[in-house]
Amino acid sequence: MLHPLAQALGSALAAAALMTQAPPAAGVKPSDIKLDVKRHTLRNGLSVLTLEDHSAPTFCYMTYFKVGSRNERPGITGISHLFEHMMFNGSGKFAPKMFDRLVESGGGYSNGSTWYDATNYYEEVSSESLETVLDLESDRMRALLLTPENLEQERSIVKEERRQRTDNSTEGKVFELLMANAFIASPYRWPVVGWEPDLNNISLDDCKDYFRTYYAPNNAVVVIAGDIDTAKTTALMEKYFGDLPGQTPPRAVIDPEPEQKGEKRVVHHMAAELPAIMVGYKAVAASDADFPALEVARSILTDGESSRLYRTLVYDKQIATETYAFFRPSIHAGLFIIYVQAKEGVEAPALETALDDVMRRMGAGEVTDRELQKARNQIRAEAIKELKDNSGKAERIALYESMTGDWRQMFAVLEKVDAVTKDDVARVAKKYFDANRRTIVTLVPEPMSEQEQDGPESEP
Amino acid sequence: MGAFKLPPYTTKTLSNGAKLYAMEYHELPLVDMAVIVGAGSASDPNGKEGLADLVADLLRKGTPTRSARDIADAVDFVGGSMSASADQDGTHMSAEFLTKDLEMGLDLVTDVLMHPAFTQEEVERQKTETIGELKAARENPGLLASRRFVEQLYRGHPYGHPSSGWESSVEAVTREDIQRFYRDAYTPDNVIFIAVGDFNKEEMLGRLEKRLGGWSGKAAAKKPVPDPAKVKGRAIYLVDKADSTQSQIRFGGLGIRRDDPDYAVLAVANTILGGGFTSRLVEEIRVNRGLSYGVSSRFFALKQRGPFLINTFTKNATTLETVTLALDVHRKFVKEGPTAEEVDKARKYLKGSFAIGHQSPDALADVLGEIAFYGLPRDYYDTWLDRIAAVTVEDVKRVAAKFPLDDSILLVLGQASAIRKDLETLGPVTSVPLSEH
Fold this sequence. Notes:
The complex is a heterodimer of chains A (460) and B (437). Chain A is α+β, with helices and mostly antiparallel strands. Chain A has 2 domains: 4-241, 2-Layer Sandwich (Cytochrome Bc1 Complex, Chain A, domain 1), CATH 3.30.830.10; 264-446, CATH 3.30.830.10.
């Protein structure tokens, strides 16, 4: 199931993909899981990784482009995600609508997702459709069709998506406000789906520039996992993609976010049933040395019904309907987020007091040996479960290869989590769960309007 | 490789009536369990809607030897999972553990299945939690629209309430109701226990028999679920959510039973109408006109006729246009049938999807559960691809014609002041409250 926040990010797969939390359990070591991945880099810079698994006559083809909303600028926010939609609407050899028709005729489906740091596309189809997929994928990387008609159509669809996931969703709205207010300079401050006026402002020329800059082969990683032959597949990749020109790599995006030195509060009024708070603590990038300890803290706070948030706020105190922590690896420093939705009759300040106590205890060294081991076990088990099918394997490999340059980092992360101590957890909790680093968005429910009476006489 | 087949599995019925299924899967060190109890929300007494689902939630909230905390701690400590919920026809428990935790996982799952304590404290806590979730669901327009649609379609029928119940009916449930429901339905002769994973399947049957063999009891006679009453004419319902900038649209009627002989033909037909991403509904509503981010159609096949439902959403101003278009697309499909090209594409899509959808142990456990619970032939899915391959244009046309939806329900949830007049051009519009029934 998708995490609600991932839905708010504006994309189908974002969550499943990125709620990483890698690692295995006592008795199961990362090295027990063998992924025989082969890497081949084309002369134009396209990285191709293959993994054979012949247990079912199907494979997954996954592309990660190293571009997301962090690469945007005010005025055209949302272009990364809008562009993802444009990728299915025809290319040099294929008329609009043909992409999905050929994929479905090939016995499968395609999709894509966009978030702050990257954009991915994948097809999962029958083994015999390998060349069809390579033909489609190379053609849209070579000669994507960008027309005014396509742009208007997808602009309209994306606005519906925004209405569904953000404007008509209390949680989606609160999340958007949290990111926009917590960050003042980081490119994470605008929503992945984009501000609506910006969506209206994106031009066809913006799309063409975007394609040229970011959809070059050297800015992509391709993973093919499943019922394939590596030698044959590699040769076909050369045939279909070898002639694409590489481009000058895009200019690096920096993170200009200044240090936050005091709490920020945002109050949002919206038609809703229950008060809620979303708290975001300024945290770290995935590459930071403190990331593994924060990942363990996240697991202790939120994984399962024995987790501290659920047990304290829902089970023991019975003041919340729902609660979770959300923290995922990101290129720039991200937020460590906690959400609490009140039970009826409970107001936001009571949620805050209870939550403060939970967070303070994490920093006061109250985490037990058993909790620490539980978090390691949960993180490891999750990592194993993510490899259940070809798309899960391809996604993990592509994610780590594109973010770190080496897919094997998915196991290295597990080793780092294993090395985290109770003192590490207490130290990072004390440092990062600090009121001066946080932003709190409070949702104040406005009563849902009076029920409409039957009959036309009640019309305003 | 040739066509995909499910891995072999072995079954055994114990002398107490419990049906056991075991299938091996060795790709990863995982074990999945699925338990199906033959009573779901259709067995909820009037006024106690939501009872079956409450019982399901309460299973893992304590046994005589383990508290709710102990159970959650044990499952979480090994990175496992265990949950249960009711649908119309049955209650489904599922659990997943690493292979090394297999014995412990089996102990836990069978303990909560056979010995739930239902303490007063946990009953009260669960009721409060469920009512809280129902209140929170009022903020979810898509979910509300689907629930209100099903209530209108099955008025007065045991399928006519959400399995989660309503706030007032959950409030009315007592500990005695819970104990009675459990006593009547949770008996070995009413239980299917499925295990899929990294083990030897004969040994697994032995482990299950060791734990479940001593369980006794007979399920109480169940009132059969009647055939749902036919909808007469086209009824239009409007649910007002005054702050909404988007309308949730649900349109459909009665679909099929799971044992319908035309199930495979309908799978092809529905793929063409609104199943895949190149369906007629998607191409007309999303691709050609950009009216919605998502549109789909689906048959929910149950023991009795389940709903057939077209599902989409659009901004206030294009509500009528989208509704009209969906009706037209459906009408044209029923009248004219599919093209040969569409049937060919749908068959290939379903063939590939079958392999893609059955790679993981939890998906394999689900499909075994479907075979066992709905009494499908043992080799049902060995011949599935042949049945799909045999579907013709004429088959699809014949079966689509059975669902003309002249008798149907259209329900729209959105800002009434902005969309009511438009909807009234289609016929009389009846208001339905946002929450409760």
